[in-house]
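Appendix B, example 12.
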Amino acid sequence: MKKLASSALALSLMLSSTAAFAGGPVVVEEEGQPEVVAETPRSGWIVPVIVGGIILCALACGGDDEEPATIDR
């Protein structure tokens, strides 16, 4: 009986040990953080052009300090 028990024990150890190493080592690589690149705004030139146009219009039109002309009848 001891011979049968020792053979069964050896067989079970042999089968379980091969199943434990069947897949090989598991290597887990951590991925780095994704690189975030901010895009330049597409309308970055519109606001300065509009503000510049308003300033030019204000300078060109100017303020009228003269009295309006009246027609004497």
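DSSP finds two helices and no strands in the chain. The radius of gyration is 44 Å.
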